Amino acid sequence: MSGTLVLVRHGQSDWNLKNLFTGWKDPDLTPLGIQEAETGGQALADTGIKFDIAFTSDLKRAQNTLKIVLGKLGQEGLETIRDQALNERDYGDLSGLNKDDARAKWGEEQVHIWRRSYDIPPPGGESLRDTGARVWPYYLTEILPRVLRGEKVLVAAHGNSLRSLVMVLDRLTKEEILQLNLATGVPMVYTLNADSTVATKTVLGDMSGAH
Predict the structure, then answer these.
(1) Is 112 a catalytic residue?
(2) Which GO terms describe its biological process (predicted)?
(3) Which is nearest to 23 in space by CA: 83, 88, 94?
């Protein structure tokens, strides 16, 4: 009997609100971000699911989203593994810059290429492909074996680290993954087959607010 994998993107952070490139910088959640995490946690609680283990990144916006979700589940003491492998994509020299300022400095087209291409990184940073190159091995060695043993696994991470996982799980092309935006605080519930392919996927919440 295979298990369940739940992915949750962290709620809105201070820098999301200020339109800044965040990457590996470590701002916390906004009041809206806290509310998004609470809503996602309640949606999970309503399913009756109980987790065996949780994974999150080395950044507090993901860690605090996880903490809020676990509080809603009554699982505050759940074993949690934190790892940089699940961190957001590193935006390098763009980190901390306002997106409009970055466009003024490098040009709209260049910034768009960095943000929306699959394999062209910003200066000193990572492309989406680079992000996947650290997320995928971690998933295969640390997360997937637990799911295949029948455990229920919760992962609270970031837009791009989770897009890397969704790309593999949903078998998306690099063109398709570039069009995918994951809503903040909205749990994606996967059950996997014994061969690690997806048996079912359920998104708990309204995706119309995706950004």
Answers:
(1) no
(2) gluconeogenesis; glycolytic process
(3) 88
15 labeled part of a ligand binding site: yes
pLDDT greater at residue 178 or residue 86: 86
CATH of the domain at 162: 3.40.50.1240
Choosing from 36, 38, 76, 88, which is the catalytic residue? 88
Residue 98, CA atoms < 13 Å, CB-side half-sphere: 5
Distance, in Å, from the CA atom of 155 to the CA atom of 96, rounded to the nearest integer, reads 25
Number of domains comprising the chain: 1
Structural domain including 202 reads 4-91+132-206
Q: Confidence class of residue 116 from pLDDT cuts 50, 70 and 90?
A: confident
Q: Indicate whether 120 belongs to any domain.
A: no
For residue 59, what pLDDT is reported? 97
102 within a domain of the structure (yes/no): no
pLDDT tens-digit readout, 22-50 = 999 999 999 999 999 999 999 999 999 99
Q: Is 115 annotated as a binding residue?
A: yes
